Each structure stands twice: as C-alpha cells, then as structure tokens.
Amino acid sequence: MATEKYTYDTREVTHGVQRAAYATITNEEGKVAFGKPASYTGMRGVNIETTQEQNKFFADDQNHIVLNSAKSTEGSFTCYQFPKDFLTSHLGKKVHDNGGLTDTGTFKSFAFQWIETVEDEFGEKFDELHVLYNVKATTPTAEAATDEDSTEPKEFEVPVTAAVNNGVLDKDGEATTEMVLRKTKENEELFNTFMDKIILPTDAIPSGAN
Question: Where do the Phage tail tube protein N-terminal domain residues begin and end (predicted)?
C-alpha cells in the first residue's frame, strides 16, 4: 500500500504592529457610524485574547451535553504616548484652561485597528489589517523610574474590552466584534482605504479592481 505524501502549507509567521488607528462611534436613530480613523503614534504592542468557556451538564451518570458560553474579548495595548483627542474622548480625561488634565472625563467606545506583517518562507510579505468594532478602554497603568546609565522610556498599558457591535453585520446578518483582512491583489483597492474609513465585513471590492 502506497504511503500518501504529506503536503505542508506555505510556512509563514506574523510580526510587528504598525499604523494603529482609532475612530469614534456614533449611533443616531439606531444607525451606527464611524468617524474617520485617526493615527495612533507610539504603539508598542497589542495583546487581545478571545476566550469562550465550555459548560458540561450531566444526566444519566454521563456527560449529557456541552454548551459554549458567550465569547469574551479583552486584553490591552502598550504605547509610549497618547493622542490628545484619544485622552479626552476615550480615556476619561478632561482638559482645563490652564492645560491641566483631570480624570473626570468620559470613556466613550471606539473602533480600533492596526496592521501586522505576515511573512512567508519565500520572503513574501503581506499586510494584515485587524479591526475591533466596539472597544472600551479603562485607566492606563504605568511605572516611573529614575534615569540610570541608560534611559528607559515610560511605557503605558491600556486595558481594553472588545464587544459585539450590533451595527456591524457580516454577510449572514450576524453582529460582529472583529475582522481580520489580509491584503491581496484582488482587495488591494479596498484595503488601501483603511485610513479613510473603518472597513466593514460587507464592504465590496470596487468594481474594476484587479
């Protein structure tokens, strides 16, 4: 009996975080809309994890059924600085006439996106866009230390939770939390609009695009 040849997929790895951006969310008369993405300079890393617990129910002295609980998407991002608008719109800060910032502002939800680089074993590189459609941040954490022989910049960690956005539906009408879009020759024209608008799962590739 001949042994069936095992075929590997093209090997690839993902690395880097670049061109991070955020966008405001508005909801008028039940219609969700996004503002134009604003650049987020100084992004160091993004750590987002989706978890889903399984609950076992027993009957007749055996496992009767296993039900999945609701998904939970949370994590944090780290950065060296904050856009001023992000501080006042989404991180609970309020600006005063003397330039002071107090922690008496609001934490409005926002859309958040960033690009990672996918590189395969042949040296080909692809941009991959990650979009979270409904994110809520909480107060950042940071640690200050004295300068020594070498100076280490202060790094901030922002805890975030991502939730379903009922105004963003997939092709089957399901409400969506996130989307990952890899740039290809076919969708390049659409992909390149990522800093002009928040790309939705149902946004069509422009007609005539190669």
Answer: 5-205
Task: Retrieve residue 202's tokens.
Answer: 């149902």
State pLDDT tens for residues 74-102.
999 999 999 999 999 999 999 999 999 99
What are the residue ranges spanned by the domains of the chain? 12-191
Residue 157: predicted pLDDT: 95
**Per-residue confidence (pLDDT) for residue 30, from 0 to 100:** 80
Residues 68 and 168: their CA atoms lie apart, in Å, by 23
Reference 80, options 161, 177, 157; nearest CA is: 157
Model pLDDT, residue 50:
83
Closest CA to 114 of 196, 186, 16, 210: 16
| Nearest-angstrom CA–CA distance, 173 and 37 | 24
Cα maximum dimension of the chain: 83
